[in-house]
Amino acid sequence: MPISLDYTFMLSDAVSGGVAPDVFAATGAAFRSAHASVESRRRSGELGFLDLPTNRVLATQVLEFVVATRGVYRDVVLLGIGGSALGPTALRNALRPPQWNMLGAESRGELPRLHVLDNVDPVTIAATLGRVQLAETLFLVISKSGGTAETMAQYLVVRDRLIAAGVPLARHLVFVTDPTKGALRPIAIAEGIPALDIPANIGGRFSVLSPVGTLPAALIGIDIEALLAGAGDMTRRCNTDDLATNPAGAYAVLQWLSDSTGGKRIHVLMPYADALRDIAAWFVQLWAESLGKARADGEHVGPTPLPALGTTDQHAQVQLFMEGPIDKTFTFIAVDSAGDDLTIPGAHADVPDLAYLGGHSLWELLDVERRATTGALAARGRPSMTLLIERVDAWHVGGLMMFFEIATAYAGALYGINAFDQPGVELGKRFTYGMMGRPGFDAARAEFEALPQSNAARVIR
Ligand code: PA5
Q1: Which of 50, 164, 343, 387 has the CA that lies 20 to 30 A from 10?
Q2: Tens of pLDDT along 202-229?
Q3: What is the pLDDT of residues 192-208, one digit of tens each?
């Protein structure tokens, strides 16, 4: 069953705070232009993520590596940050049984655990390195640029540990990086460390379907062929400038209109399935880093993405969603079939507050709560849409991720910004390099030191 997008409750004939149907209909021309702009960038070779579903070379490299190393490692530790970590984490948590790393070998078979280190907090790093047997561990160093300070620092720590333990680097390290640029590639060549490519025309947050995501996924037994096939199906469905049939197009247009004409600046993504919780975290980076930009005309644009989880956040954020400012849209992800469902046993017939639950199933409760929340938000004029997938499997997750990536590309064109760069993160990086003594960054250090510094008189101790 293909992924469907139900946007009934984004329109003002259903929900008072929604987009007027005639305004939506009138954006056909703006969407055609956004689609043409994305197509033209694709044709000029800028948008490599769209070609990943059919890139047999990369998929084959990954699968060959995985077959050659099956059963060799008990643990895989991924060193990476941003797009190099969020996608692999989302894939593991969506497509492996819950708490994969906690399962014993009798449940995982010969498949390894997958730990993702996406920060430089020494407490986490030391704890993880202290828990694994280095001689049975594979470290994936994933960095498109091959120079990100956090990932390089992690790599240096790990490398030192491997050398101290007498473990051969070329058997316990794999790099996933740009084919030619960055610090990792020459090290791989000089030291015989296996290295897989992230195509030059794919940036970090659009890289989940490259070896950035497919290598760790395949190592823990996820069906990456199905993942890529689902993504390919979505790519084909979105290969049209007809807003009525292009799901990522409709999503992008409705979000953009809601923000730019309706003041809905916060875009909540709320899956109703624990397995998809980290898809929302992955989406946050994609939507925020791609769309939050200073436009050429001096305007600062970009919606703020907000992750939530149903039903958990009904007891945390939904009060705000219902009665706080009317500045949000909601996208629910619903799953049609539960997989393993549990019937709620009937008991306490004399306690009405409990007895009504008996005989229903937990999945039914989850789904009813999603529909109830959609209705409650609609009754308060708060627009929402629902992505429906048949089940949480590799095909549907691949399709979902490609859906959001294509929607992001369209949204960039609609907002009039470049969705594929991130100039705003550069200044902080330069200050860091300056303060850490990186050659060539003395001026950045001086610039930082010339900024106002913390005033002791204003620190309350
Ligand atoms: O989307 C992006 O480009 C960034 O968020 C990167 O993923 C992040 O900065 C890590 O970069 P790299 O993969 O080059 O280490």
Answers
A1: 50
A2: 999 999 999 999 999 999 999 999 999 9
A3: 999 999 999 999 999 99
289 is catalytic: yes
- Residue-wise pLDDT for 404-438, tens only, equals 999 999 999 999 999 999 999 989 999 999 999 99
CA-closest residue to ligand 1 atom 6: 204
Per-residue pLDDT of 89-144, as tens digits, reads: 999 999 999 999 999 989 999 999 999 999 999 999 999 999 999 999 999 999 99
Question: 289 CA to middle of ligand 1, Å?
Answer: 10
The strand pair at 384-389 and 4-6 is best described as: antiparallel
DSSP states along 405-417: HHHHHHHHHHHTS
For residue 86, give every residue at least 6 positions away whose Cβ sits within 8 Å of its Cβ, in sequence order, or none. Answer: 118, 205, 208, 278, 281, 282, 285
Please give the distance of CA 254 from its chain centroid, rounded to a whole number: 21
CA–centroid distance, 30 to ligand 1, in Å, is: 30
3-class secondary structure for 32-85? HHHHHHHHHHHHCCCCHHHHHHHCHHHHHHHHHHHHHHCCCCCEEEEECCCHHH
Non-local CB neighbours of 329 within 8 Å, separated by 6+ positions: 10, 254, 255, 258, 264, 266, 267, 268, 383, 384, 385
Q: Is 361 helix (H, G, I), strand (E, B) or coil?
A: strand
Strands 195-197 and 304-307 come out as: unpaired
* Residues recorded for the chain: 461
Ligand 1 atom nearest the C-alpha of 83 is 7
The rounded Å distance from CA 238 to ligand 1 centre is 26
**Known catalytic membership, residue 390:** no
The model's pTM is 0.97
My answer on whether omega of the bond before 311 falls inside 30° of 0, hence cis, is yes
Instruction: Give the C-alpha separation, 205 to 83, whole Å.
Output: 4
Report CA torsion sign: 227, 228, 234, 237. negative
Take residue 47 and report the two structure tokens written for it.
Answer: 């948008």
pLDDT digits (tens, 9 = 90+) for 27-84: 999 999 999 999 999 999 999 999 999 999 999 999 999 999 999 999 999 999 999 9
Residue nearest to ligand 1 atom 4, measured at CA: 204
Q: Give residue 176's pLDDT band: very low, low, confident or very high (50, 70, 90).
A: very high
